[in-house]
Amino acid sequence: MNIRTNPLMAVACLALATLSAPAAADGEPEQRGGAKAGHSAAQQRNAPMTTAAQKPGGSGVKLQYRVDAVPQVGRATPIVLQFDHVTEAEGATVRLSADRGLTLQGNSTLALPKGKRTTATVVVVSEGEGLAYLNVFITQGGASSAISIPVQTGTTAPALKSTGEMKPAPGGDSIITMPVK
Hints:
The chain is mainly beta. The protein is built from 2 helices and 11 strands; from the N terminus they run ααβββββββββββ. The chain has a domain at 43-150: Immunoglobulin-like. Helix content is 14%, strand content 39%. The strands form 3 sheets. A 5-stranded antiparallel beta sheet has the order 1-2-3-7-5, with no helix packed on it. Strands 6-4-8-9 form a 4-stranded antiparallel beta sheet, with no helix packed on it. The protein has a two-stranded antiparallel ribbon with strand order 10-11.
């Protein structure tokens, strides 16, 4: 069996391999000028949406969201909310609230019409570093859903409060003893 290679096909494959090599190196193509830049606004708008989990007995409204900027202390952070599957004739309602450490700017309620995809951009401002949540409460036809969207500002990890003492066990392991409440 004799295999012949088309020269044009070989050149095309070589060009494709050469052009894709820089992008495959670290997953991010290099910006013109050799320096890596931050994500552009267009890249943020095209970022994938996160689909919130739906629980049995909930409102049935599907929520997808995307945090459109890296949250920074004292700066506005837009969060895009997209609602689908509104089936009730009177539509659905949304109430928004923010945890302590996060300020919600603008309206805290939304009305969702039946059968239409609704997209809204909510703006929050972080008051300090750490993890806070934007809480989204959706009501449709007497059923409700509650979704908490995490907003991580800075790199400070949430600290757990320890209510017990670390003690060595007879086998050499360490255990935390906690009082019974």
